[in-house]
Amino acid sequence: MKDELLNLKTYYHTLLEKDVKDINYGIETFFLQWGELYGKTDKPKVLFIGKAMNGWVSGNVRSVDDLFNEKNGYCIFNRGDQLEWVENLAGAKSGYNTRKSQFWSLIREFSKELFKENDWYKYVAWTNLYKISPEEWNPDSELKDLQLKTCTELLKREIEILKPSHVIFLTSDWERNFLKSLGISDIEWKYEPWDPDPNKCPYKSRYAISNGVTYIRSLHPQGKKIGMHSDALLNIVDPIPKAEGS
């Protein structure tokens, strides 16, 4: 799988040498991350998808060869601590504390419950819709438009290579422009409420199955209750069997 993922480097030549080459402010470049046991056990293969980075290790490096050189500290491919860094930075006294990130808090709570493992990060994969971001904030509409075509093609290839059983978009409808290339824009979506009483919580997560893959379209976790959100996702991914006659 690693060799197949390395072949995705060609998309980064397009992104950095064509799509965003005229951007004159600092940018960050992201490559997907996968746990060391992803796809190597009988556990579900879950791919989480976020919107884009908000600060990353790459700095404003624009050389694709440098970004994919594993000897560099700013390398974005196959980093030695990929996804484990989320747990390592939980409770960090300085810099980025992942416990303060509702995105990672949701993924951690959901994954620990699903896999029943403290080293949950070994079993999942993570990517973002948009691979190029300004330093320290999400891409604006111009930057999204510049990279949309390449990023939609890239996301499709990521899913083809990773072969996830479940794809979870935590993107608050940012994924809409990506659905057609994935062949799931016109399928029927079901809804999983976060709470049976919509007066207590109006949020819902959408899901559908296509070619054996369960796609889940949910909200970005910021400002929302982690427990309710996690339970709704678990009800889709690993539903508790109903008692006979219920």
Summarize the structure.
This protein is α/β, with parallel strands linked by helices. The protein has helices spanning 2-6, 9-19, 64-67, 84-88, 102-115, 141-162, 179-182, 226-237; strands at 27-29, 33-34, 46-50, 124-128, 132-134, 166-170, 190-193, 204-210, 213-218.
Indicate the radius of gyration in whole angstroms: 18 Å
CATH architecture: 3-Layer(aba) Sandwich
CATH class identity: Alpha Beta
The biggest beta sheet reads:
7 strands, mixed
Number of DSSP helices? 8
Strand content bin: 15-25%
Low-confidence segments, given as residue ranges, are: 242-246
Average the pLDDT over all residues and give the rounded result.
Answer: 93
Describe this structure in words.
The chain has a single domain, classed as 3-Layer(aba) Sandwich (Uracil-DNA Glycosylase, subunit E). With 246 residues, the chain is an alpha/beta fold. The protein is globular. It has a seven-stranded mixed beta sheet with strand order 2-4-3-6-9-8-7, sandwiched between helices. A two-stranded antiparallel ribbon has the order 1-5. Helix 2 (9-19) runs antiparallel to helix 6 (141-162). A hairpin with a 2-residue loop joins strand 8 (204-210) and strand 9. It has helices at residues 2-6, 9-19, 64-67, 84-88, 102-115, 141-162, 179-182, 226-237, and strands spanning 27-29, 33-34, 46-50, 124-128, 132-134, 166-170, 190-193, 204-210, 213-218. The longest helix is centred in the middle third of the chain and has 22 residues, at 141-162. It has eight helices and nine strands. It starts with a helix and ends in a 9-residue tail after the last helix. Helices cover 31% and strands 16% of the residues.
